[in-house]
Amino acid sequence: MERADMDSRERRSGKRARSPRIDRLFVYGAMLPLLTGALILWFAPEAQSFLALNLTLFWGASVLMFVAGVRRGASLRQPGGAAIAEIVVMIGLFLAGVASLVATIWAFPLAAALLQIAGFASLGILDRIAAPNDDGQPSVERLRPLQICAPIAVIAAVAIWIWRSPFL
After folding, report:
1. Tally of structural domains, the chain
2. What's the pTM value of the predicted model, to 2 decimals?
3. What pLDDT does 136 receive?
């Protein structure tokens, strides 16, 4: 087993953590509506595009706000409470999700998609910075790259569809 592939808690214990099935189900399952919506936009008849676009953007915003809440909940476990930076990150993620919902409702889908891409990208960057201090489960940490990269890629495909659409 490569020690470089292990996180700090795994190196201390000498064992590689496996992701429990339920964690994998929630991480991968939460991305399925995004992927389905993007596939419908690109390959289904255009009559379904309005509903698919709105539902996909609503789901992406919901996932972003959920992740903000999870980060807040994780910060509550820390001795001494959450740091100011953690609160700022949580509020930023939550506001990106809310702004994306508002942009979708007000018929600015490209702005909504770009807000979601920015939110998930910032989560990826900030997660890397916070990872050495994070006391989360190593098994869940292994799923984070997919949890962050999948919505960025899928929502980028949605944004490209929006940009190319003659209807929007």
Report:
1. 1
2. 0.79
3. 54
